[in-house]
Amino acid sequence: MSEKYFFDFHPSKLTILKKNSDSSVTIAHENRIEAKQPFHNEELIEAIRPFSNSETKPHFTWFSSQFTLIPNALFLPSQLENYYRLNFGELNPSESLFYDSIYEENLSLVYSIPNWFRDFKRNYFFNGELKHHASCLIKNCFKEQHKNLISILFEGKSFIMYIKKDGKLLVCNSFDYQDEEDLIYFILSHHKQLGLTENNTLKLMSYMENLNSEKIIGLIAHFKELCNYSVHFLNKLEYNSTLTCE
Length: 246
Prior knowledge:
By secondary structure, this protein is α/β, with parallel strands linked by helices. Helices cover 28% and strands 35% of the residues.
């Protein structure tokens, strides 16, 4: 396998990931995103140009906490604004809507992207494939051998939570939080509401910041419902590798 590059966009940061011939993943480049600054798109294209190849389709990922899942049986691409409005109200004029098809779970994921990112991709990488982090999370969790699984992607101000029970997706949603205590509260409340097993697998993944794993383990130990959970942590680089699964 030859080297491949993946372009991960966060509202404040571009990270270019390099997938090496041995399947290991490293960070090739990082760039601050300041969308309000003049010549912003020009700076981004100059950052990406050395890592792009006209012979291959570029892969883009986007992180945001505003997304909604729609069963494919009910999904119509013409109704994106209605799906979005039901969860988040009117769309900001500075944003546009996009969707991913998640065939493994027979779902579509609707989300917003800034107009600058839409224009950037359209003008420079029209044929590029774009996927939301939540779509990647769902696809990767679908492949997991664990039938009972909670996967949490930790961004810093928000996190995405995926819950699978008896091999079926029950929850994939985003939540705002302030500290590790909030995080444990959300896990505990979903454990009770959904009647999850006490022998569950919990996977915690760091995206923008590394988690305080010792504090989280200590908090989990205080709750009898959670103390038998099998807990696994993925640091930022380990999480990055999950974004390169095609």
